[in-house]
Amino acid sequence: MNDEHFMKQALEEARKAFEDGEVPIGAVVVQQNRIIGRGHNNVERLNDCTAHAEMIALTSAFNTLGSKYLMDATLYVTVEPCLMCAGALYWSKIGKIVYAAPDEKNSYRRATGERSPFHPKTQLIQGPYKEESLQLMKAFFEQRR
């Protein structure tokens, strides 16, 4: 199993969010080639501005492991994390973050510039399915207009 396989799982989560009328972002947390947490945006359904895909996937992973740290785990997320999610990822000490599409408007970089808000040992890479993630976001916002 590789980045493509797990990002495809995150895309499935994003599609669930799209179908629910949520901003279509999905995430999975993986450790030892096993998904230990899943999430997609639930901001509208839960009436909770913190119910981002990453936050839900992290909580699921913490509960699965019974731990607050994810040093040996990887987060796959369809869109680059926002500043709030970056803070949670920092405290989780996650080992690696793989995102599909950049988000110039709402990512953590808007507040931090190019300075990384993640734990110093966290790897951050842009992974596969950039175009698919961007198209899903575009379709969602076109539908809203």
UniProtKB/TrEMBL annotation:
What is any one GO biological process for this UniProt entry? Answer: tRNA wobble adenosine to inosine editing
Q: What class of enzyme is it?
A: hydrolase
What EC number(s) are associated with this protein in UniProt? 3.5.4.33
Pfam families (UniProt xref): dCMP_cyt_deam_1
Q: Does the keyword Metal-binding apply?
A: yes
What's a Gene Ontology MF term here?
Answer: zinc ion binding
On cofactor binding, the record's note says: Binds 1 zinc ion per subunit.
Active-site residues are E54 (proton donor)
For this UniProt record, the keywords arranged alphabetically read as follows: Hydrolase, Metal-binding, tRNA processing, Zinc
Span of the secretion signal? none
Listed under catalytic activity are: adenosine(34) in tRNA + H2O + H(+) = inosine(34) in tRNA + NH4(+)
Specify the CMP/dCMP-type deaminase domain's residue ranges.
Answer: 1-111
Which residues are Zn(2+)-binding? Answer: H52, C82, C85
What InterPro entries does the annotation carry? APOBEC/CMP_deaminase_Zn-bd, CMP_dCMP_dom, Cytidine_deaminase-like, tRNA_aden_deaminase
List cofactor names only: Zn(2+)
Q: Which family does it belong to?
A: Belongs to the cytidine and deoxycytidylate deaminase family. ADAT2 subfamily.
Q: How does it assemble?
A: Homodimer.
Record function comment: Catalyzes the deamination of adenosine to inosine at the wobble position 34 of tRNA(Arg2).
Q: Per its record, how is this protein called by name?
A: tRNA-specific adenosine deaminase
The gene it comes from is tadA
